[in-house]
Structures are given as C-alpha cells and as structure tokens.
Amino acid sequence: MKRLLISVLCIIAISQYFWLQWSSQPQEVAEFDRVALPDYQITALNRTEYDPNGQIHSKLSAQSLEHYQELEFTYFQNPRYILYSSNQQQSWVISANESVIYDNRQLELEGKVSVMTNQPDEWFDTLYVNRLNMDLTAQTISTSAKVTGVADKLTFSGQGLRGNLKTQEFELVNQVRAEYFVKQ
Fold first, then answer.
1. How many other C-beta atoms lie within 10 A of the C-beta of residue 106?
2. What's the rounded Cα separation, in Å, for the pair 77 and 65?
3. CB 3.0-4.6 Å disulfide test: which of 14, 141, 159, 160 passes with 175?
C-alpha cells in the first residue's frame, strides 16, 4: 500500500512540476505587422487637382481611401476619376470597384472598370474591362484582359488594349472583333 501511495505522489509531483514549467513560459501574442495597417484612412473622398495655371486637371471621388506610407501605395474603394482636357472640357470618366496608386503616378483599376468619353460619337463611347493599368501623368492605358467597347454604331471586343487618352488613340491587341450597325 505504501508503494502505491508513494507512486501516486511521485506521479502527481512530476505532473505538477511539468505543468508549472509549461504554464510559466511566456505566451506568444500574435502582433499585427504595423506595415499592414494603413497610416490614414478617409471616407467619402472628393479631391480636385489643378495644373500650375490654376485650371482643373482632374477630379477624384471614392467611397474610401487607405494610404500605406511604408509600402508606398494608396488603395481606393469605388473610385471615380474625371480627367479634363486643356480647354477645361470634361474628357474622360473612369470608374472601378477598386484601385491602387503607386508613386502618385501608376494607377491599377480592378473590377467592373469603365472608361467613358464625355463626347461620345458613332465610333466610341465606353470601354469595359475587368482590370486596367493607367499612367496618370501621360494618360496612357493598357490591359491584357478582355476588353469590350460600345458606341452609337459600333460594338467591339478584343484581348488586350493599349491607348492614349490625350490623343484618343486606342489599339486592341489580340482577338479583335467588331460589329458595325447600319441604322435605317
């Protein structure tokens, strides 16, 4: 009986020792990487940018903005960009579900991207694409995704696009298809 009692006490003592050892180790608390947190956030953003002569260059509105200084990018939710020509006419309206700006110049738009001209004609009105890259300074656009376009007398599609919003020159890269409508 004594042996059984001593064995049980030994097991309890050893268990107690290991339990204290494991419980005294510092608990690792998951810390968020500060880089992954935005430096600042803005909701219901409205911004107007002017050129050196005081003329409107562009307007931007977005549901929200998150700026990441250390990662050097800014994220927008439901952005809408309005670009103006040199004669102060609203030239282009570009919208998407989300966008990211790198270096205050390179813009990546994703999700239901549309590029509309303010002066539609029978040859061009709106481009639709799921992903679009844009150089804000040069006002050039490009994508490797499927592109669809509509106008008064024309619909077109293709895989990939390169274009210049200033000169209004666009090139569909691959698998180009167009339908011209004759109205009577």
1. 14
2. 7
3. 159
Q: Are 165 and 91 in contact (CB under 8 A)?
A: yes
Q: Residue type at 90?
A: Q
Q: pTM for this one? A: 0.75
- Bridge partners (DSSP) of residue 59 are 48, 82
CA distance 121 to 154: 10
Question: How far is 171 from 156, CA to CA, in rounded Å?
Answer: 11
Q: Apex CA 12: angle with CA 8 and CA 15, to 5°?
A: 140
Helix, coil or strand: residue 169: strand
Q: Please give the Cα distance from 22 to 88 (Å, whole number).
A: 71
Amino acid occupying residue 4: L
**Where does the chain show beta strands of DSSP type E?**
40-50, 56-68, 73-77, 80-84, 90-95, 98-102, 106-117, 126-135, 140-150, 154-164, 169-180
Sign of CA pseudo-dihedral 71, 162, 112, 122: positive
The tens digit of pLDDT for each residue in 80-103 reads 999 887 776 768 999 999 999 988
Does the domain at 34-180 match CATH 3.40.50.300? Answer given as: no
